[in-house]
């Protein structure tokens, strides 16, 4: 099996519904010279790292991680692949799903496009680090609408696990309400998730594709020995089903890997 999973996965969600856009206040007549245009904040892409840290003996074999991951998401069988980290040398971020549309705040366009990671996810992970990814397509792909579910697990001690989580930058508060073509149609919200540890990061991204709300849910957490990443992208994307799958998978990993 090829390593297409890394691009599809690392490449990670709707907690706020579309609301009626607020009216802009009338600024009134200008009373003086215009202020200089401010620089629009953007997410600056980070170059790929050139050096990976040296790690000691591994605690898990790849087969241990393989057998610990679930085999299905509901009725969808999960295909599995090895070594999702680091991504392939030719890995590229996805194209802007909001290309050609006005976005305000403009920064939120980048937060959505890069899934919060302005670099290459897991690029610092040594190539031989045990890791497994499970993936299932949930429907046909139409343009940027690519419904899928995925789970990644990679063995990383706590300091490197934190480094992987911290590649995903904090979600800007202003992205909770995003205007697309003048209407509030998008949002990016991050909140803690009890039961997955103090470093758990649960992020929900919602934006329009082909006139309908598209939702991307990303949940990432670490233990003392490994990091897990869940991702579910779909039009129909209920939170309860996603969190139930994540919780069941977490419990299975804890039991199988004792970590």
Structure description:
Residues 1-19 form the signal peptide. Residues 21-41 are annotated as: Disordered. The chain contains five helices and eleven strands. It is an alpha+beta fold and 259 residues long. The strands form two sheets. Strands 3-5-6-11-10-9-8-7-4 form a nine-stranded antiparallel sheet, with helices on both faces. It has a two-stranded antiparallel ribbon with strand order 1-2. Mean pLDDT is 86; it is low at 1-37.
- What is the number of beta strands? 11
Q: How are strands sequenced across the largest beta sheet?
A: 3-5-6-11-10-9-8-7-4
Fraction of residues in H or I helices: 10-25%
- From the alpha-carbon coordinates, what is the Rg to the nearest angstrom? 20 Å
Q: What is the general shape?
A: globular
Q: Kindly state the mean pLDDT as a whole number? A: 86
User: Please, how many helices?
Assistant: 5
**What is the distance, rounded to the nearest whole angstrom, between the alpha carbons of the first and last residues?**
28 Å
Q: What percentage of the residues does DSSP assign to strands (E)?
A: 25-35%
Major pleated sheet: 9 strands, antiparallel
Order of helices and strands: HHEEEEHEEHEEEEEH
Low-confidence spans: pLDDT under 50, at least 5 residues? Answer: 1-37
SS class:
alpha+beta
Region (Disordered): 21-41
Signal peptide: 1-19
Biased composition (Low complexity): 27-41
Protein name: DUF3558 domain-containing protein
Helices and strands, with pairings:
Layout: H1 4-9, H2 62-68, E1 72-73, E2 76-77, E3 79-82, E4 103-104, H3 107-113, E5 131-137, E6 148-155, H4 158-166, E7 178-180, E8 183-191, E9 201-209, E10 212-222, E11 226-234, H5 239-257
Antiparallel strand pairs: 1-2, 3-5, 4-7, 5-6, 6-11, 7-8, 8-9, 9-10, 10-11
Helix pairs in contact: 2-5
Protein name: DUF3558 domain-containing protein
Keywords: Signal
Organism: Kribbella pratensis
């Amino acid at each position: 099996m090829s390593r297409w999973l890394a691009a599809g996965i690392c490449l990670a969600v709707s907690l706020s519904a579309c609301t009626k856009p607020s009216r802009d206040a009338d600024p009134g007549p200008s009373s003086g010279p215009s202020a200089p245009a401010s620089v629009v904040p953007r997410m600056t892409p980070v170059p790929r790292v050139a050096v990976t840290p040296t790690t000691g003996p591994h605690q898990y074999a790849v087969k241990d991680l393989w057998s610990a991951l679930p085999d299905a998401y509901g009725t969808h069988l999960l295909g599995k692949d090895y070594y999702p980290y680091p991504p392939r040398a030719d890995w590229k971020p996805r194209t802007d799903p909001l290309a050609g549309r006005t976005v305000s705040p403009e920064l939120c366009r980048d937060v959505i496009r890069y899934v919060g990671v302005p670099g290459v996810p897991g690029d610092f992970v040594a190539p031989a680090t045990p890791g497994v990814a499970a993936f299932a397509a949930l429907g046909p792909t139409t343009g940027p609408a690519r419904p899928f579910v995925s789970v990644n697990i990679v063995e990383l001690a706590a300091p490197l696990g934190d480094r992987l989580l911290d590649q995903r930058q904090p979600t800007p508060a202003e992205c909770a309400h995003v205007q697309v073509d003048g209407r509030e149609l998008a949002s990016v919200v991050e909140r803690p998730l009890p039961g997955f540890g103090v470093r758990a990061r649960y992020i929900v991204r919602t934006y329009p594709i082909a006139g309908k709300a598209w939702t991307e849910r990303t949940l990432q957490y670490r233990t003392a020995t490994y990091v897990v990443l869940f991702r579910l992208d779909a039009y129909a994307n209920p939170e309860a089903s996603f969190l139930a799958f994540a919780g069941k998978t977490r419990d299975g990993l804890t039991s199988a890997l004792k970590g």
